[in-house]
Amino acid sequence: MRGNGPLSGTVPIGGSKNAALPVLTAAILFDRPLTIDHVPRLRDISTLLALLDVLGVRAARDDEALVLDGSNLTSSHAPYDLVRRMRASIYVLGPLLARTGEARVSLPGGCAWGPRPVDLHVLAMEKLGATVDVEHGYLVARAPKGGLKGGTIRFAVSSVGATCNALLACVTARGRTRIENAAEEPEVVALAEFLEACGARIQGHGTRTIEVEGTARLTPVRYAVIPDRIEAGTFLVAGAITGGELRLTGCRPDQMESVLDAVRAMGFEVAAEGTEITIRGSGPPRGTQIVTAPYPGFPTDMQAQMMALASIGSGVSVITDTIYHDRFTHVAELGRLGADIRMDGNTAVVHPCAGLSGAHVMATDLRASAALILAGLIAEGETRVSRVYHIDRGYERIEEKLRAVGADVERVQEEGP
Ligand code: EPU
After folding, report:
1. What is the pTM (predicted TM-score) of this model?
2. pLDDT category, 32, cuts 50, 70, 90?
C-alpha cells in the first residue's frame, strides 16, 4: 500500500465474526437444518465450518445464507489440528455436552499475546453437572446420567466466550441456571436472542445476571447475524487517520458508543443516524486517554487501531489494555513505521512523531494487522504488510473495501499460515 491522502465514500459493514461464531455452533443443538443470514466470509468462519464438518454438521452456502444441518451428528471429538487455528473452537464444548452427553475438545494452547486460559468454560460445564478431565491435551467432558442439569455459575471475570458456552450448554439442561457476572457484550445478547427465538427461556441477557429455564427441545429459526462493530470501528479509524470523509452503512451505532466517543474525543466529527455512521477528519488527532474494559467500556479489539490513530496525534495519548495485558505486538511494528510508542506494563504512551514512513512490517494477529494497514494508509511511500492471513480471519476483502473509497492498496500474494 502507498499512503495517498483522504479516503472518501461509502463502506458497507458486514456481519459480525464474533456474533456469528457462537450462533453457528448452536447448529450442534438442533436435529434439523438451521439457516443463518449475513454470515461474513472469513477465515475464522471457514475454520469453524471445518470443525463442525468433522463433528457431522454439514454446511452449505445458499446465496448469502448459510444452511447448517446437524441432524446426523457423528462425532463429539474436536481435534487439535482445527482447534489450534482458532480459540473460539472451544464453543463446541457446551453444545456437544448438551446434545450428546460427552465432548472431547482439544485445549487451544497459547496465543500471540499470552496464555488465554479456558478455565471459566470448564467451570461452567462443571456447574451444570459435567465432569471435565484433561487427558493428552484434550478436555474430556461427560454429562451426568440424564444429561446436564441447571446450576449457578459465577464467573470470577467477565468472559464473552465462557458466557456464550454456558448459554449453549444450559438452554436444554434440566431445570434452572443462573449465570452471575455474565458478559454483557452485544455478541452475548445476540446469541441469547437467537436461542430465545428458537424456544429457549432466557432472562437478563445484557445484564450481569442471566437466568435460564431449561427447555427440552429447541426449534431452529432463520436468523441474521448482527453487524460487526469492530469492522465498523476499524473503518471509522480509516476515515479519521486519512482525514477523509466516510459513510459506514449497515452498522449498529448503539453498540459502538465507547468507540464513537473515543474518536470524537480526538477531535473528529462523528455522526450516527439509524444504521449509518459518518466521519469527517480534519487535522491531526488530539492526544487522548483510552482504557479497555468489558462492554459497554472501550473494546480491546479496537485498542491497536486507535493506537495507529494516536501515533499521528498532536499530543500524547495513553492507552491501557485491562483485558489482555500483553496484547501489544503491534507496538514494535508501528515503531518501524515511525511511531513513537513507549510501553509501561499494560499501558502504551504514544508520543507525537515526525510522520509515518512506509516500511515492510509483519502482522502478528488480527487486530494488529488492522492497525498496520491503517498506518500504511498515511505512511509516506510504500508499506508492505506480510502474513496478511491474519487480517482475513476477521475482515472480509479489506483491500477491496479500502480501494473502493480511494486507498492505494493491493494484495500481491495469497498467503497461508
Ligand atoms: N478468561 C479467563 N478464563 C477463561 C476465559 C477467559 O481467565 O476461561 C479471561 C481472559 O484471559 C481475558 C478475559 O477473561 O482476560 C476476557 O476474555 P473473554 O473470554 O471475554 O475473551 P474471548 O471470549 O476468548 C472474545 C473475542 C475476542 C475479544 C474478547 C474480549 C470471540 C471469538 N473472541 O474472546 O475477539 O478480544 O472476547 O472482548 O468472540 C478478535 O476478534 O480479535 C478477538 C480476539
Report:
1. 0.97
2. very high
